[in-house]
Fold this sequence. Notes:
It contains six helices and three strands. The chain is mainly alpha-helical. The chain has a domain at about 80-185. Strands 1-2-3 form a three-stranded antiparallel beta sheet, with no helix packed on it. A hairpin with a 4-residue loop joins strand 1 (about 15) and strand 2.
Amino acid sequence: xxxxxxxxxxxxxxxxxxxxxxxxxxxxxxxxxxxxxxxxxxxxxxxxxxxxxxxxxxxxxxxxxxxxxxxxxxxxxxxxxxxxxxxxxxxxxxxxxxxxxxxxxxxxxxxxxxxxxxxxxxxxxxxxxxxxxxxxxxxxxxxxxxxxxxxxxxxxxxxxxxxxxxxxxxxxxxxxxxxxxxxxxxxxxxxx
Length: 192
């Protein structure tokens, strides 16, 4: 059998006998290529695996001892919040750690009190759940609604001041725009 032009004897080129059977190099041994292997080989020949991100860089195996390494990497890569996967008491503690900053968008003290009372009800309901395993149960603390309202007030006042300043800046910019622009009937008639 004659070699194709440009090939040297002994080189490991595959010469296709049929779509699924090839002969490897000079050995003459049949090589069975599955459909998946064929697609991979064709993609390599087209260069689709060249210049991929991370090519030539060592693998990051810093957390290979952690059994949940794949979950943590997936959550980091996809920017997922795993707060919903936390046990009840830990989720409540995480929620409490965000107070009162997370309440800044709430408009009234009554709504802040209602949110804190709802949080306290959920803490008390979590305490009634039976403990799982032989570890002591985790307990989240209840919050004082009056203290949260006192901490919320300056944050809300600061937000309202920022919103007021932004409104004034927009109004001033709009006024300048209206002063420099001729009225609609002058623009319609072409007079300046």
